[in-house]
Amino acid sequence: MEFPNFIGGNWEQTSDSVANVNPSDVSDILGHAAQAPLQHVERAIDAANTAAPVWAASTPQQRFDVLDFVGSEILARKEELGTLLSREEGKTLAEGIGEAARAGQIFKFFAGEALRQRGDRLASVRPGVEVDVTRSPVGVVGLITPWNFPIAIPAWKVAPALAFGNAVILKPAALVPGCAHAIAEILSRSGLPEGVFNLVMGKGSEVGPALIDSPKVNAISFTGSVGTGKGIAAACGLRLKKVQLEMGGKNPMVVLDDADLDIAVDTCLNGAFFSTGQRCTASSRFVVTEGIYQRFVASLSEKTAALRVGNALDAATQMGPVVDARQLQQNLDYVDIARSEGGTVSGGQRLNGATEGFYMAPALVTETVNAMRINREEVFGPVASVIRVKDYDEALMVANDTEFGLSSGICTTSLKYASHFKANAQAGMVMVNLPTAGVDYHVPFGGSKGSSFGSREQGSYACEFYTTVKTAYTLP
Ligand code: NAD
Known about the structure:
Blueprint: E1 2-3, E2 5-7, E3 10-12, E4 17-21, E5 29-34, H1 38-56, H2 60-76, H3 78-89, H4 93-115, E6 120-123, E7 130-137, E8 140-144, H5 152-163, E9 167-171, H6 177-188, E10 197-199, H7 204-213, E11 219-223, H8 226-238, E12 242-246, E13 251-255, H9 261-273, E14 283-289, H10 290-306, H11 325-340, E15 344-346, E16 350-351, E17 359-360, E18 363-368, E19 383-389, H12 392-400, E20 407-411, H13 415-424, E21 429-432, E22 452-453, H14 463-466, E23 467-474
Parallel strand pairs: 1-5, 8-9, 8-11, 9-10, 11-12, 13-14, 13-20, 14-19, 18-19, 20-21
Antiparallel strand pairs: 2-3, 4-5, 6-7, 7-23, 12-22, 15-18, 16-17
The structure holds nicotinamide-adenine-dinucleotide.
Nicotinamide-adenine-dinucleotide binds next to helix 7 and helix 8.
């Protein structure tokens, strides 16, 4: 199958293409994705600029109809799209279908947002003058997305961008063109005027800067790694371009002596290893107090070792493969680093599956301290470590001792500690007796410190990024 680009309402092949490889079975090639040369990016930018005023003038009903159509179709096809997702990214089929359904729900939510108009009419401090505060679209937005949520992250950027009247250029990650193409295909039949939505696949280091450097792109929303994000922030800052970044994490899960052990272990297992640990909100540091430490480690080690790793499409699989050879090597390198720093590692070895894929056993590293590299740098794989602490105060200090601040959790039955943690955890999202990963779609998503930059994504808060505020004064 070919995954062409979608520019100005037309499907476009390119002379270069890249194979879309199934990480569960490298002999399974899903297809070939277009690789846009710079002239194609330019054309997408021009098409979006031509279409932007048309879509900015659309009615809330038109926007609702488009987004509701897309959401309904994704929901109706969630098994098929979830299977495609699991095949190209490697999360289990249940996770893939769940993510596809989430994308449908996001489009439905933003269909509603298109109708929920915002604005104020206020009295002026001057007699006879009227004041209107309204929101306008930003214009043309460039959306740059990572590979780990190939349908949900494009959905949570594309849907609000369109709901608030913007024209879009989506640049998905090279590893997952199938899901991006599927969204584009549905959007191509949704009634959107041509050029309002454009899909440009190609090298991140070429297409990204072409979008960021263009004076005809008004805003950039990026999700991905810290290194790439910092470069984008600097480039956008130079150009005074609106930018929003969602990046990495080193998310802690605190387990206190008074925690329900079963809840704590299941919460940690899910947070660290589901979706192969390839979630920006994955728990990678378990900060555990002395009284529960031995029981917690014994139970979590047993359940971690029992996780069934295998082909994402096999119904018995609980943890799919790593996304590609490069990420697998990075994970294995971090397991070695943890060992060389003095950590005790169980699991973490490369595995052979029935098919040739990027399989590894989930790794649990004990006997670590927070200063080790394994506790400071994002691995982005099924690797989690345990840090023993004396009490709650030390646990909070260790949890916050990181440059990141995306998600932070605590397992406790104490209302006092739960309340204190919610107020004092330095993170954009805080979980009590719930995994650090796994969020709702109708409320804001994002982090603090080095994890995020700019206004929040998702829920009604998405309006902040995708609109600009205008204050109008009238003397009738
Ligand atoms: P990445 O930074 O390598 O790539 C992200 C996107 O940026 C891709 O589309 C890529 O092609 C593009 N890109 C690459 N170079 C670019 C450049 N110079 N200019 C502009 N764009 C460029 O990240 P990844 O490996 O795809 O994703 C993994 C990372 O994403 C992890 O760090 C993870 O924590 C993070 N992530 C964060 C969130 C969040 O919401 N905070 C969610 C998912 C993933």
